[in-house]
Amino acid sequence: MMASSLAFSGDALKLPRIGEVWFGSPSAAGPYDPAFREGLRELGYVDGKNVTLIMRYANGDVTKIPVLLDELIALPVDIIAVTPKAVQIARQKTITIPIVCPDMGNPVRDGLVASLAHPGGNLTGAYGLDSETNAKRLELITEIVPRAKSVGVMYDADDVSLVANAKELRSLAQSEE
Question: What pTM was estimated for this model as a whole?
């Protein structure tokens, strides 16, 4: 057992709590949850033994996310892991509890961090550099299909970060015409 991971609350041993907010359902989280647990296990953390995982699911309803975050913050949890749909809301809900988002849009453009070099705040995660690679994607498309006159892009119109990315892609494509 990792002694540094334990905190004492009064006389009782309190396990660190990781709150998770999933946009989808438990079945949609199915492929990701076991991988997350395995990653924790590789680091020496086992749910119920030396850490407690507390999951909340919005079941595809973005309006449930603020309520789910409020529940976790009230428990309280020691860290919150969120999906991209919940990251903006989580950032608005707490500036003290660490937030982890494993798949962010552009955190600078989306106003989540000050800069990539010096993000500040309580948010961390992974950023796929979509904005920085859009020009290369268009270049590859024109190399693969030189006669292409238009390109379709599918994205979630309810995700502000994906909408912004699609607009950037459209601007790049129009500037190269």
Answer: 0.75
